[in-house]
Amino acid sequence: MNKFVCTTCGTQYPDSSRPPSSCMICEEERQYVNPNGQAWTTIEKLIESQKYKNKILLEEENLYSITTSPSFGIGQTAYFIKGNDFNVLWDCITYLDERTIEEIHQMGGINAIALSHPHYYSAQIEWAKVFDVPIYIHEDDKEWIVNPSDHIILWSGEKLVLHEGMTIYRLGGHFKGGAVLHWEDGNEGNGVLLTGDIIQVVADRKWVSFMYSYPNLIPLPAKTVREMAEKVKPLSFNRIYNAFHKIVKEDANQSVQLSANRYIRAVQGELFQT
Predict the structure, then answer these.
(1) Does the bond joining 70 to the residue before it have cis omega, within 30 degrees of 0?
(2) Euclidean distance between CA atoms 52 and 138, whole angstroms
(3) How far does CA 198 lie from the centroid of its chain?
(4) Is the pTM value of this prediction over 0.90?
(5) Residue 237's closest CA among 265, 208, 211, 202?
(6) Which residues are CB-contacts of 28 (< 8 A; sequence separation ≥ 6)?
(7) Half-sphere exposure (CA, 13 Å, Cβ side) for 139?
């Protein structure tokens, strides 16, 4: 029996004697099936290849990024927040080896895993088992859980306080249960918002954007983007980290509000004529 992993999105499936016929995550219009066809691997094979390793980098005080090199699957970044006696892994990656486990234990271990949306569920169950911690997923996205586990806690409503100074907010948008993590103590007390790609930092790092599907370039309705921007407007955060190591370094809440206004003007045909 093997826990097969989709090579395109990095999602790990439950034990089975043969690979699934398809990947539910990739078959859906927000993702894609590799043009060369569906392919599978396992974490064990990735480790045996000796090709991959995880890089854990200090981004700022008490915040670390975790990425796999060379890139695997979607290639997202997970973040480790070192809090007051409570450490959180925000979003997840597939690759997990003994070196990574040891490094994280040296940093104090993990107390909880929280997810922005299904594209980054990856090998969340593997991580949860190793560190014996709960996984927090919004109940609106429960249909995308391909690997059920008692470690998963489905939360509901518009926000969930994980610990003092760490709160998850449901914004919707990219996925119905799409969430962001507000870390009040981040950026020297000025506040950090970890957004996955529910709010996406773009090439011009003073701006962000919002999409239903990023690889297939399907936009969100103006009404949805306005609602998302309004939900974060009352929060105090100066900085945003997205899922691909892009950062809005200052005045991040203002960037969200201005970006939402620009986006809405664009999709309503008011920003330009072409």
Answers:
(1) yes
(2) 31
(3) 8
(4) yes
(5) 208
(6) none
(7) 8
Count the neighbouring beta carbons within 10 Å of the beta carbon of residue 115. 28
**Residue 128 contacts residue 113 (beta carbons within 8 Å):** yes
Sign of CA dihedral 47, 52, 53, 57: negative
**Predicted confidence (pLDDT) per residue in 57-80, tens digit:** 999 999 999 999 999 999 999 999
Helix (H) or strand (E) holding 237: none
Q: How far is CA 10 from CA 61, 75, 92, 234, in A?
A: 29, 9, 10, 35
pLDDT in tens, 130-177: 999 999 999 999 999 999 999 999 999 999 999 999 999 999 999 999
Ranges of H-type helices in the chain: 24-27, 43-48, 98-106, 124-131, 222-232, 252-267
Cβ(113)–Cβ(152) under 8 Å? no
Look up residue 116 and give its amino acid.
Answer: S
Domains parsed from the chain with CATH numbers? 2-267 (3.60.15.10)
CB within 8 Å of 65: residues ≥ 6 apart: 55, 56, 57, 59, 77, 78, 79, 80, 241, 245
Which two structure tokens, joined as six digits, stand for 241? 């980290």
